[in-house]
Amino acid sequence: MRGPFEPRQKDKAAAIDPEETAVTLLGWLASEPDMMGRFLSLTGIQAPQLRQAINDPGFLAGVLDFVMAHEPSLMSFCESTNTRPETVVAAWHHYSGPAMD
Fold it and tell me: Per residue, what are the HEC states of the chain?
């Protein structure tokens, strides 16, 4: 049972920094060569451009879109990083907006 001042689980997911989630996701992609290769191929970005691209909210939205489009990848990321799927969804909504749901 949760206490009167303890946030609900949904609130905890929304409170996590969306940028941190997207950057963590990108780091995970970098540790998965096949996934990273697919991401780079789909986006057309070159690996050396990643350092600059990470400052672009549109790029972070693309990182989140990439994993949200493939549930097994989303679940693999969540399992590998101990991240709740709701946290990724909240970050995705932050960058892409709820209309993309």
Answer: CCCCCCCCHHHHHHHCCHHHHHHHHHHHHHCCHHHHHHHHHHHCCCHHHHHHHCCCHHHHHHHHHHHHCCHHHHHHHHHHHCCCHHHHHHHHHHHHCHHHC
